[in-house]
Design a protein that fits this description.
Single alpha-helices involved in coiled-coils or other helix-helix interfaces; homodimer; alpha/beta; five-stranded parallel beta sheet; about 425 residues; Rossmann fold; 3 domains; six-stranded parallel beta sheet
């Protein structure tokens, strides 16, 4: 990690640069695979699953037997832990439901919004070394609360054609409606276009590698909504003289272990704490199973000394981190100054991994500076808010003349006529 | 308009096809112009304004003089009408503000969301034959309520280098922070990349032609958020025997006059009403100033007879219209069955043009079937919802062991350690 002592503001843009993402242009490859899925359906999916995942499947759907076996394999302890996380995630996301609140804007003119679930959604869960069942919770639970009718989960099979039992256990626990053994570009293609066995969805959620990201961009281009633009995970921590260096080092490593391209940033007004964190980092990283990944990520990472905590917040807003930990004394007093962040963790005991798993907040968050304009996934991500209006005869008499004048000024006489023809019947009587 | 009598369900996909959008690939052109803006800034903007808008400007910014002149030119009647619309739009969008509601998910674990404005936004207002000042209201008002710091408006100048006075009047009325005479790809490029005189924004709002649409897609690809995927305007009306054919015809024409590619659809359980609407359409279109446009749009449009009102709603949900008018008796009873629509108008007097101008709802809505997965523009579009959590020592003791187990099952030991190191200090004492 590099340390920057009182860096000038004109270097902040440089200090906020994210590690280079692999910019290989995958658009042609994605176009080609999508086209083949469009033409050949399942046959194309089988072909690419053999090619990329090295498994010769006969069917993608996970059957009831596989699910039941999974449930018997997962330990009771882990089931309890997942149960606790589920309850908290449910509680927090249920609190996001909105009540219909009609507003009478003018006399006789009543407007309101009502939520409707997005009917069919896709949930992508990456494969790889670890089974990311926590993401099944984070996407499946709000989808269920929203009332989505179909929740289609896709995740790549291992070389034996299997899916990790904890993923299957979690998926059945929260009521995912169908589970398919398919990953990568071909999974996103199937969810976008639909095939014989995998249904086309209205919106696709979930993380993934560069292939999945490129495929989700194509899905969006073709009219299927996506959750968020993707990017590697990030954490910015603001510390002061009261912070515990060992806690901070553990938090930084928890994010650094995600991938070579993860970025962790430490910002402080106290040089001594920065140094103490560095020492703690060196001690802790030694024993980390994913040490090589964490060390690679730490290379991209920065320790920044700034003149006071207000400047630290200012830098954080400039950076717009996915995760922000305010590991400082009386962190509450800085809340109002936070303008750009995905999810914020306050105080000594709010470690970022709590939000990844079990506190109740969602862990699907904007990265790469997108926190300036995007919110993380919430119940809102699974619904549409439809506006309604009911205008009475009297209501139209109140606002009608204004509509006529405005439509005329915009030279849209058809718009004006729709009001005039109604008002005329009133004056006729 | 073509009439379809009791069409079979397997024809619904065909009946829901939107008119072909101009699919000319503009990506290369957009890439080229964006690159030039990136390299040459304002000089590139001036060049393209001369090339596309045929005006040789020296500066883009609208000055105070121009604004003051505009205010004196707009009639008092129109000012009053705009004032009424402004008050209603404010009232409805203010009601969308959310109050912070902390939830204690587990004992000692408190989570909540807080809204923060997107700091800088761009508002694009198209040029052309009509000054779309109503869109200035629809985008500027919620931006102001949200608290966006910078609201940058771009709109193309006419051949004299001027902007319509009603647009300027409306922009100053609601507190747009800067107004620039620039349109098309070059305007969206400037808002995406920033130049000497136009500031880079976090999110771009507003309608536009195929060039603007292609440029907004590029903006999104480069990391600037956009409001909605674009498409031509649409209206679906459901009528029954109680509907007034003349009102319905006027509503259909109000949408048909938008553009050749607008689409209007009439769905009913009563053949006689469909016929009566057709006659009324023929009568009314004759006198419409934008008759040619309306007639072209009507060519794409459909009259559909279905067996009952439930089937009409089912078709509407399948179609997912931008605007839906339920011009039927007791329309309220069908509300719960609506699952996909941008904005819904209930009853005899709720004409669609009310929502375009003055009832209070927003007129920036999902088209082209996007109502299945997107909401229209609302206060939400101008804010990010940041999640916060504060976990006490006791709180971490409650949820910590679950986090440790789950992190271990995902093979993310760094995530586990962040909890363990904290729990250890508690058991040590």
């Amino acid at each position: 990690m590099k340390t920057f002592i009182y860096p000038d503001k004109n270097t902040w843009a440089f200090l906020s640069t994210r590690p280079n993402q692999n910019q290989e242009n995958l658009e042609n490859k994605v176009t080609e695979i999508f086209k083949e899925i469009q033409q050949k359906g399942d046959a194309a999916l089988l072909k690419y699953t053999l090619l990329f995942d090295h498994v010769n499947l006969t069917t993608f759907a996970v059957n009831q037997n596989e699910i039941e076996n999974s449930c018997s394999v997962v330990s009771e302890n882990l089931k309890d832990a997942i149960g606790l996380a589920k309850a908290n995630i449910e509680k927090f996301h249920r609190s996001q439901r909105q009540i219909k609140e009609p507003v009478e804007t003018s006399k006789g003119v009543v407007c309101w919004r009502e939520d409707r679930p997005i009917e069919t959604i896709g949930v992508y869960i990456p494969g790889g070394t670890a089974p990311l069942f926590s993401t099944v919770l984070m996407l499946g639970i709000p989808a269920r609360i929203a009332g989505c009718k179909e929740i289609v989960l896709c995740t790549p099979p291992n070389k034996n054609g299997e899916i990790d039992p904890v993923i299957l256990y979690t998926a059945q626990l929260i009521g995912i409606t169908s589970i398919h053994k398919i990953g990568g570009i071909q999974a996103i293609g199937a969810l976008t276009l639909g095939t014989e066995s995998i249904q086309k969805v209205d919106k696709i959620f979930g993380p993934g590698n560069q292939y999945v990201t490129a495929a989700k961009q194509m899905a969006q281009k073709l009219g299927t909504a996506i959750d968020l633009p993707a990017g590697p995970s990030e954490l910015l921590i603001i510390v002061d003289e009261f912070s515990v260096p060992e806690f901070i080092a553990a938090d930084l490593l928890s994010q650094a272990e995600h991938g070579d391209d993860s970025q962790v940033v430490l910002v402080s007004d106290t040089e001594a704490v920065i140094k103490a964190v560095q020492i703690a980092l060196e001690n802790q990283v030694k024993n980390l199973p994913r040490k090589q990944i964490a060390l690679a990520a730490l290379k991209n990472s920065k320790l920044i000394l700034l003149k006071d905590l207000d400047t630290c917040i200012e830098f954080s807003n400039f950076y717009a981190p996915e995760h922000l930990i305010l590991a400082i004394e009386n962190s509450d007093r800085l809340i109002a100054k936070i303008s750009n962040a995905g999810s914020v963790f306050l105080g000594k005991y709010s470690c970022e991994s709590a939000g990844d798993y079990a506190s109740g907040t969602n862990h699907t968050l904007p990265t790469n500076g997108y926190a300036k304009s995007y919110s993380g996934v919430s119940l809102d991500s699974f619904v549409k808010k439809i506006t309604f209006q009911e205008i009475t005869k009297e209501g139209l008499q109140v606002i009608g003349p204004a509509i006529e004048l405005m439509a005329e000024a915009e030279k849209l006489i058809g718009h004006k006529n729709a009001v005039s023809i109604r008002l005329k019947t009133m004056s006729d009587v």
